Amino acid sequence: MNTTQVIIGIVVLIALSGFYVISIFNKLVTLKNRYKNAFAQIEVQLKRRYDLIPNLVETAKGYLKHERETLESVISARNEASGSLARAAAAPGDAAAMTGLMGAENRLSGAMMSMKMVMEAYPDLKASQNMMQVSEELTSTENKVAFARQAFNDQVMAYNVFKQTFPPVFFATMFGHAQDATLLEFEDSATIQAAPKVSF
Asked: Any transmembrane segments, and where (predicted)?
């Protein structure tokens, strides 16, 4: 083997290594953009949910005249969740933003559950056409939120797994991908929807 062949071999090896490092960078960017896009879908559905909640409260207001505190807690939790969503949308995958959104969503779910329990005592309200329509839209939207959240979490996992594998783990920090993205997990709906047990 002569010197020219050795130099050509070294140049080819450096070029291939360079292309491989570039491919790692591109894949990290692609995976990050995918989970950001997936979060945008959650944002759309949560905003729709937040827009429906005042309609639900307004419909219930006429029937629940003596339950003002319950209605106010729903609106307060909705406003808090809306603010947390705005912060999370600015930094999808960020641990603090996701934790804030998860906490706000869990409080909103708890307030909504309390309102549903109060509504059980008002059969006329449950039978109201407007209430049935708004409730149906809310249920549909919550299902869409669950699907969007699953898609987001799948993309976050793909991103985290790739950046933790060898050799991307050596380049992730250098390329600005030091922190893992955080999953978005709300309280288990079965826990939220479980009726309290009363014993006499």
From this structure: 6-26
